[in-house]
Amino acid sequence: MEETGPNATQWRNWNEISGPKWVRAAAAMETRLAPVNDLLLAHAAPRAGNAVFEIGCGTGATTLRLADAVGPDGHVLGVDISAPMLALAQARITEARAAQVRLLEADAQTHAFPPAAFDLVLSRFGVMFFADPVAAFRNIASALKPAARLCFAAWAGIEANPHWQAPHAIALRHLGPPKPRPPRAPGPLAFSDADYVRDILAEAGFADIAIRAEPVVLAGKSAAEEAELALQFGPSGALVEEKRPDDDLRATLRREMEMAFARFPAAPEGGGLALPATILLAQARLS
Ligand SMILES: C[S@@+](CC[C@H](N)C(=O)[O-])C[C@H]1O[C@@H](n2cnc3c(N)ncnc32)[C@H](O)[C@@H]1O
What we know:
- The structure is a single chain.
- By secondary structure, this protein is an alpha/beta fold.
- The protein has a domain at 8-157 and 183-217 and 276-286: Rossmann fold (3-Layer(aba) Sandwich), CATH 3.40.50.150.
- 45% of the residues lie in helices and 22% in strands.
- The chain has ten helices and seven strands.
- The chain has a seven-stranded mixed β-sheet with strand order 3-2-1-4-5-7-6, with helices on both faces.
- Strand 1 (51-55), helix 3 (61-70) and strand 2 (75-80) form a beta-alpha-beta unit.
- Residues 7, 10, 14, 19, 33, 56-59, 61-62, 79-82, 85, 107-109, 124-126, 129-130 line the site of S-adenosylmethionine.
């Protein structure tokens, strides 16, 4: 599908730029983000038999955990705008024989979902990319049963996420500042202000809104691999994508980023890196 709707820019990003990169780096991305799944699932507490609506399911790492949690009598609908990411998710779900999962290529902001169908809506880092977040959460709310719960993880600010701040400082020093953009433009850091997110959810019809910053230690594999990821993802990756450094400068960035990641503590077990991070965990109910 060629997207021409309000999220056309993000459609292009997740189908042509970030999505294909994510698919290539899926194993590393999923290892490092697995601790976020543990936190999110513990807070959302999906139950056997639940119908769960997952927004921005990507390559399916959280979807598979949800499938296990709801069991064969439950149901998971994973929605995403990225065809390449969904293709990998579908392969993994087929391999896992998770017949309770259905994936849908659609824009969560505008798609007409079945009304009042889900007990829980959940997302790991998939709700910060809407052009109109209030419209998107209103649309999502229309698919929820009256007693349904919402639970999602978003990134806190870059200052609370040294695994992003360190490579971003290096990229900034070599590449200069990014072109100006509105502070809450769709992107990984768009929801880093809890008050802003609270207002969006309230305006979209949610109540009992609780948003809290939660520390989490990401599981980095090695300084070299983290440097490679930082060249592609997050604030440093966005700057590299915008400025397109030549091969020599890219090699310099990689080397300096690897040195910066080598200063992070070693993981207590497994030989990798312990990357301290902060996420915002948001929970709410329909009002
Ligand atoms: C940072 S990735 C997270 C993917 C996955 N949840 C994970 O944690 O591995 C953000 C995801 O949100 C999806 N996304 C962005 N805008 C969307 C929209 N309007 N509707 C549905 N999915 C969207 C992207 O395609 C991408 O898969």
